[in-house]
Amino acid sequence: MNILHHIVEPSRLLMTWQPQDEAAPSRTRRIIGEVCVEPDRQIVFRYLKDTPDFEEACKVGFKGFPAFRLEDVETRQGVIESLTRRLPPRKREDFADFLAQHRLPAPFNYSDLALLGYTGARLPSDGFALAPDFPEDAVPCDYLMEVAGLRHVPGTDVTRIHVGDAVTFEVDPANPVDQDALLVRCQGQKIGYVNRALRATFHCWLRAHQVSARVEKLNGKPERPLVYVMVSVN
Q1: Which sign does the torsion angle of CA 100, 92, 42, 67 carry?
Q2: How high is the pLDDT of residue 172?
Q3: Which of 19, 31, 68, 105 could form a disulfide with 24 if both were Cys (CB 3.0 to 4.6 A apart)?
Q4: pTM across the whole model
């Protein structure tokens, strides 16, 4: 098992949401909010209400994150406390096991913002997740990424994918949702996409830095396989 050695503090987090209902007209994961660090180090949450993603999410049932009122312009109280409830406490006996699942070092001597960004803070009971937005020049940087849209790429043969396989990224201008979508390729086949919330960061990395990636772990179920890729940026 590999460990992420170069941990970078995110400049902000992007909150995403995906409908849980398989029958929803669209299950595209949308960016609906941001968690920012103010100059005075206060953590602030804002819904990104004037964006196409937010509007599309509302069309398929988005009602807001339970801890942050949808009618508020921003939330300044208890933001980190509300979000870290989605994670096991740092003092829990099995916290090191939780870190290992995400290939994070123990002890984890970084901020709660970094912990939320690097783990995603997902719960099985809702469709929310967090993604880090890294400073453009903050390299070297390591990140463990779940390949998105694995089930929706025709012809993908997961049995051909193995831990340690090299992975590459390329723009998919024919994508019907996002013309700047980034395809993930392994063993010559398309296996999925870069998370939409990470797309801008990856485009910056690919333009300005050397990016290498390999399959780090495979899990999930036969009907819903999961592939995780360890990305190193130098």
Answers
A1: positive
A2: 86
A3: 19
A4: 0.94
Domains of the chain, earliest start first: 1-133 (no CATH), 137-234 (3.30.70.2330)
Q: Are the C-beta atoms of residues 175 and 190 closer than 8 Å to each other?
A: no
Q: What percent of the chain has pLDDT over 70?
A: 98
- Strand (E) or helix (H) holding 64: none
5 close to 36: Cβ distance less than 8 angstroms: no
Backbone angles phi, psi at 126, to 5 degrees: -145, 180
Residue whose structure tokens are 């979508």: 181
Q: Look over the chain and give the mean of its residue pLDDT values, rounded to a whole number.
A: 93
Kindly report, residue by residue over 12-50, the tens digit of the pLDDT. Answer: 999 999 998 766 657 789 999 999 999 999 999 999 999
Instruction: Judge contact between 121 and 16, C-beta under 8 A.
Output: no
Q: Which helix (DSSP H) or strand (DSSP E) does residue 58 occupy?
A: helix 52-59
Residues 51, 66, 126, CA angle at the centre, nearest 5°?
85
What Rg, from alpha-carbon coordinates, does the chain have? 17
Contact predicate 64/48, CB 8 Å = no
Helix (H) or strand (E) holding 181: none
